[in-house]
């Protein structure tokens, strides 16, 4: 078995153990393998043992891998910053985007989604702690964004995503995830019909599953330490 297959197996076991510990239904947490900075052969090694969902952050690098793996049954998820001049390529090549943090990007993606493809699955990125430097909607802007994005024909709004600052203990890790879950619950109480909480990475997947994650985004625990990001992309 390859190293990647072994590490993937260990991650699956962590997910299953967390599902049992927090009384989540078996199989209710999906695994997104984050393959950014890793070569197409690493994706092939994971595909060979049944992993189909892959996450990428750097567009040009992702497009090269999508081309190299054309014909393989990969579901491609974009999880990086969505730059306005890159939306057409994202709309034409991915199945999901987790990192929408501006309405303008959502409108562009909807308009640019090719007619022959099903609507693009979308999660809104939400900013839940002050230290975090990444993007995201402020929690109090999310309801209005959900209302508008729900009307865009090229998109299918699935849920919320967050990327909190790393924390060491379980309770601190759980806090932002709990806030994201409560936000999703309140949107659904208003009829939003969202089914996805994209939260949890290699270091905090247990905390995220405790708080209701439906998709964890795991990179280093599967592929090992990351290579440097490609130059000029961020
Ligand atoms: C890189 C990345 C991950 C994976 O992080 P690991 O700590 O390697 O598991 C998850 N989500 C996003 C948005 C990322 O950019």
Characterization of the model:
The structure is a single chain. The protein has 234 residues and is α/β, with parallel strands linked by helices. Helix content is 39%, strand content 16%. It contains nine helices and eight strands. It has an eight-stranded parallel beta sheet with strand order 7-6-5-4-3-2-1-8. Strand 1 (30-34), helix 2 (40-47) and strand 2 (53-56) form a beta-alpha-beta unit. Helix 4 (87-93) crosses helix 5 (103-112). The longest helix has 20 residues, at 170-189. It starts with a helix and ends in an 11-residue tail after the last helix. Pyridoxal-5'-phosphate binds next to strand 8 and helix 9.
How would a textbook summarize the main sheet? 8 strands, parallel
Helix share, percent: 25-40%
Bound molecules: pyridoxal-5'-phosphate
Low-confidence stretches: none
Radius of gyration: 17 Å
Q: What is the N-to-C order of secondary-structure elements (H for helix, E for strand)? A: HEHEHEHEHEHEHEHEH
Distance between the termini: 33 Å
The total count of strands amounts to 8
Strand content: 15-25%
Strand order of the largest sheet: 7-6-5-4-3-2-1-8
Q: Structural class of the secondary elements?
A: alpha/beta
């Amino acid at each position: 078995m390859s190293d990647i297959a072994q590490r993937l197996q260990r991650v699956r076991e962590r997910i299953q153990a967390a599902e049992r510990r927090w009384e989540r239904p078996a199989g209710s947490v999906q695994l997104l393998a984050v393959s950014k900075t890793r070569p197409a052969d690493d994706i092939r090694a994971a595909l060979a043992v049944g992993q189909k969902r892959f996450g990428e952050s750097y567009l040009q690098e992702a497009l090269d891998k999508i081309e190299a793996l054309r014909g393989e049954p990969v579901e491609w998820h974009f999880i990086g910053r969505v730059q306005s001049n890159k939306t057409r390529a994202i709309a034409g090549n991915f199945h999901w985007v987790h990192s929408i943090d501006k309405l303008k990007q959502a409108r562009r993606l909807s308009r640019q989604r090719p007619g022959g493809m099903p609507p693009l699955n979308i999660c809104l990125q939400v900013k839940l702690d002050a230290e975090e430097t990444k993007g995201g909607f402020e929690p109090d802007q999310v309801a209005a964004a959900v209302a508008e994005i729900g009307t865009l024909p090229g998109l299918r709004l699935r849920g919320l995503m967050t990327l909190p600052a790393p924390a060491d203990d379980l309770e601190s890790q759980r806090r932002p995830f709990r806030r994201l879950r409560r936000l999703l619950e309140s949107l659904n109480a208003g009829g939003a019909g969202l089914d996805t909480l994209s939260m949890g990475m290699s270091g905090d997947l247990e905390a995220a599953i405790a708080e209701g994650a439906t998709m964890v985004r795991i990179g280093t625990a599967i592929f090992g330490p990351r290579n440097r990001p490609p130059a000029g992309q961020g």
